[in-house]
Amino acid sequence: MEPLKVLILMGSKSDRPVMEKTEAVLDEFGVPYKTMIRSAHRTPEATIQAVKDAEIAGCQVFICAAGMAAHLAGVVCSKTIKPVIGVPMAVGPLQGEDALHSTVMMPSGLPVATVGINGAKNAGLLAVQILAQQDERLSQLLKADRNAQAEAILSEA
Questions:
Q1: CB 120 within 8 A of CB 21
Q2: Exposed e or buried b for every residue in 11-47, given b needs 16+ CB within 10 A?
Q3: What count of Cα atoms within 13 Å lies in the side-chain half-sphere of residue 29?
Q4: 69: in domain
Q5: What are phi and psi of 86, to 5 degrees?
Q6: Could you report the average pLDDT of every consecutive run of 10 residues in the chain (157 residues)?
Q7: pLDDT value for 2
Q8: 123 closest CA partner among 22, 11, 41
Q9: Is the pTM of this model over 0.85?
Q10: Would residue 64 be called left, alpha or beta, if left means φ above 0 and alpha means ψ between -120 and 50 degrees?
Q11: Residue 41 is part of a domain; what is its CATH number?
Q12: Number of structural domains, the chain?
């Protein structure tokens, strides 16, 4: 079995329908991942332990989905030097605007790559791009995917 490459953390089980798009991308590219529900506020110790366990298992990229205050990506970033991708979730009265600002406005020295609100597909693709820097198979698959996207647009003309 291939070592874990990506850990997907969601702040709530209600995030799953959106984050299934991340899982679909990783499945499409054959990237081993694990998905867990962890909360920066309600389960901080379990969140930190998940990061430690994932790194031991070989994890190279973390994807964190959270809404409202959206501190999950920041907590994960504070515990690893691996890339962290934040996915702001469209929940609560501000429908993700608060989560977007919370995720993208990390303090200097603790960067979190942030995709758009509910940008789960792009989070998966960004993780694959990061991994492709050291994986020629993924690099070729990404190039083929980009070419297919271009061909689909051009065939609509």
A1: yes
A2: bbeebeebbebbbebbeebebebebebbbbeeeeeeb
A3: 32
A4: yes
A5: -100, 135
A6: 92 97 98 97 97 98 96 97 98 96 95 98 98 98 97 91
A7: 82
A8: 22
A9: yes
A10: beta
A11: 3.40.50.1970
A12: 1
Closest CA to 131 of 18, 22, 29: 29
* Contacts of 64 by beta carbon, 8 Å cutoff, 6+ apart: 8, 9, 10, 11, 72, 73, 76, 84, 85, 86, 87, 112
Helix or strand or coil: residue 135? coil
Say how far apart CA 81 and CA 83 lie, in whole Å: 7
Write out the residue range of the structural domain in which residue 15 sits: 6-155
**Does 1 reside within a domain?**
no
Q: With CA atoms as reference, report the closest residue to 72 among 7, 4, 5.
A: 7
